[in-house]
Write a structure and sequence with these properties.
heterodimer; B: 270 residues; alpha+beta; Alpha-Beta Plaits; 23% strand
């Protein structure tokens, strides 16, 4: 089998949160809540105050122009 | 006195879902039918999922993890038998009647989405970059970088200082080009095998908890017959890129979270 489809536990949690909290159909039900973006939840919960190195030049720079999300 | 309950919506299907298997996960799941659409829902406590409770609980990482996993597993079980439209975490109604009214209101939106999703699967692709490893492979392959290195060797102290600076800039530029090329190429090749493809936002390292940096986060909607070809292409890309510090991580099949968007019109009517 392809190892591509093995869902390791940690990867799966990240993948789940990346979808369940961030995507899926959004309609307003009777209880109006705002579930924040997945990274906000993570960051808010884990509060990593330790110095976080940033790779400013790499982050966010790739994929502009033709790589933009279709529709 | 019974505590007040709310109706938690997991997904909408176009045929009656078999919920027996979900009993191990949650014993109170049921479906609400309206006009050929089936909403899979469960009763949850007002105290836990009401406005106040949810606000409190969303700050509890363990709670979020457990509930998000459950949300996912319930949808995956339903998805084994029928096509589904997955809903976002925490879509709640006061009563079955108001859930049914929502199904009625959105049936014109949901039906074409379900038709589109029939016999398809969502797969996810994330690419991570280890810049040190990628940099190490650049020097040996890039003629421009090799040329500057030669110049540095034969230059005076003052001149070599500026040449080194120039070399660093060149490495940085080449690094970004390689990352772009890997992301573009992988995305385009896999998109060709897909019914639809999306680029999602990158997640920072605090979230991924990896040493390397996410440089592509994408989702693909595949016809089930294309899954083998898709996986073979992922393997080919892995073989091509992994020795250069670009790691490809492919997961699936997932409920089609990234491919069930309502039209703007529908959202406005909500």
């Amino acid at each position: 089998m392809h190892d591509a489809i093995t869902k390791s536990k940690d990867v799966t949690l990240l993948e789940i949160l990346d979808r369940v909290l961030d995507k899926g159909v959004i309609i307003s039900g009777d209880v109006v809540i705002s579930v924040a973006d997945v990274d906000l939840i993570y960051l808010g919960l884990k509060v990593l105050l330790s110095s976080v190195e940033t790779m400013g030049k790499l982050r966010g720079s790739p994929f502009i122009g033709p790589m933009q999300e279709a529709k | 006195m019974t505590t007040q309950q709310l109706v938690y919506l997991y997904c909408v299907a176009d045929s009656e879902p078999e919920l027996k298997e979900t009993e191990a996960l949650a014993d109170n799941l049921y479906s609400v039918c309206n006009n050929g659409l089936y909403a899979v829902a469960g009763k949850v406590e007002q105290e836990e999922f009401g406005q106040e409770g949810l606000k409190r609980n969303m700050a509890d990482f363990e709670w979020v993890k457990a509930k998000a996993r459950m949300h996912e597993r319930i949808i995956e079980l339903v998805m084994a038998d029928t096509d589904v439209i997955p809903f976002k975490f925490g879509t709640l109604f006061n009563t079955d009647a108001s859930l049914k009214a929502m199904l009625e209101q959105y049936s014109r939106e949901f039906k074409p989405i379900l038709r589109k999703l029939a016999y398809k699967q969502e797969w996810g692709l994330k690419i991570y970059c280890n810049p040190e490893k990628l940099k190490a492979t650049l020097g040996n392959n890039d003629s421009e970088i090799l040329k500057i290195e030669d110049e540095i060797k034969s230059s005076s102290v003052g001149k070599s200082y500026f040449l080194k600076k120039k070399k660093d800039e060149l490495i940085e530029k080449t690094l970004n080009e390689r990352i772009n090329e890997c992301g573009q190429k992988s995305f385009e090749l896999l998109k060709e095998l897909s019914f639809e493809a999306r680029i999602k936002k990158l997640l920072p390292r605090e979230v991924t908890e990896r040493e390397d940096e996410m440089v592509l986060n994408a989702a693909f909607l595949l016809d089930k017959d294309e899954v083998d070809d898709f996986q073979n292409m992922v393997e080919t890309l892995k073989m091509h890129y992994e020795s250069t510090g670009l790691y490809i991580d492919c997961t699936g099949p997932w409920p089609p979270y990234n491919f069930c968007g309502l039209s703007k019109q529908g959202v406005q009517n909500a």
